[in-house]
Amino acid sequence: MFKFDKLAFGDLGWGDELLFATLMTITVSILSMGLGLCLAIITVWAKLITNRITRFIANFYTTVVRGVPELLVIYLIFFGGNSVVMGVAKIFGYNKYIELNALTIGTIAIAFISATYSSEVIRAAYLAVNKGQIEAAKAIGLSKIQIFLRVMGPQIIRHALPGIGNVWQITLKDTSLISVTGLVEIMRQTRIASNVEHSPLTFLVTAAFLYLFLTTFSGKLFKVLETNYSKGYN
Amino acid sequence: MQNFLSYLNEFLLFRNFLEVISGLDNTLLLLIISLPLGFVLSLVFALGRVSKNKFISKPIATYIFIIRGTPLLVQIYLIYFGLGSVEFIRESFIWYLLREPFWCGVLALTINTVAYGSEIFRGGIQSITKGQIESGLSLGFNKIMLLRKIIFPIALRKVLPSYGNELILMVKATSLVSLTTYMEMTGIARKIMAKTFAPVEAFIAAGILYLFLNFLMVQFVKYLEWKYNPHLRVKQN
Question: Could you report the predicted ipTM of this complex, rounded to two decimals?
Answer without folding.
Answer: 0.89
